[in-house]
Amino acid sequence: MIATDVPLSDVTDQLVGVFRDPAILIGIPLALLGAVFMSFGAQYQSRGVIKVEHLTGTSGSEGLNPRQLLNLLRRPSWVVGTLMLGLAILCQLSALAFAPLILVQPLGAISLVITTLLNARVSGHRPTRKSVRSIVACIGGIFIFVTIAAFVATETPISDSQLLTVLIMLGVVLVVLAGLWLLVRKHAHPLFYIAASGVLYGFVATLAKVVIKRIQSGDFEWLTVLCIVGLLAGAGLGAYFVQTAYSVGPPDLVIAGLTVVDPMVAVLIGLTVLKEAETAGLWAFIGFGVAGAIAIYGVISLARNHPQVISDSQELPIQRGSDDQSAGADSR
Prior knowledge:
This protein is mainly α and 332 residues long. It has one domain (14-328). 76% of the residues lie in helices and 0% in strands. It contains 14 helices and no strands. The chain has helices spanning 8-18, 24-56, 66-72, 76-96, 101-104, 110-123, 129-152, 160-184, 190-216, 222-248, 251-272, 282-305, 307-313, 323-328. 43% of the residues are buried.
């Protein structure tokens, strides 16, 4: 016989206790909703970038020029995509207010599944067995990471010295990435733009978490303002790299890189600087390493085996967006 006299509240308390902090149960669905908005936003922005390239007769593979950036603002599809990404950011920031950084960031991996299905429908490139295996590796690695993080993640107060460390690291990263871009932009691989934007967004997520916590505690001073400046600088350069990535690769490949590199960087900062897993045992860090390696392998494999990348490189008849889709996008 199954006991039926256990109060429902006791069962709920036990489930909540598994995650140590009840607020996490609010942060997770907010992060997942943000992933949905990110998927649709990426698809619409990618469509806008491709359309602008067709209209201007120029490629953005070396970095979008001012004329192309201005034309993006005139494309309804790109504007809609940007608004959706704005909603995704709003959901993510809200999630960060309730849950630890190393748990919220990896949940964006669910957007990879949605973006893959959307892009397959729009471009006519059906996922191959190898590309599906790559996507499974990306998502599997990230979700293993999330499972571990859900049990070991803890919130800790962030000191001024820790915050200064993050800001100095971001400054160095901005200079290095800008310098590398100037050196390699004429022959840059899509993975460069994807990895660069992912690294920057990892710092942006970290600083966003810091700003939210400081505002919640009423600690708004010069260091918080400096965080906002760094956040905007990282987000601006990261967004530019993302738009350029859309011009050299399919949106699901871009999302695959972002949903792996972004959380990896944010988690490394959370682990090493912010001490969000200070009480975790050795097994957790081994699990983080294995899960991260699986996810990174998935991104690299997808970059090699994505059907749209292969089609474009071999100049096959099916290009980035079918003829019907391109014709229907003329007004968008």
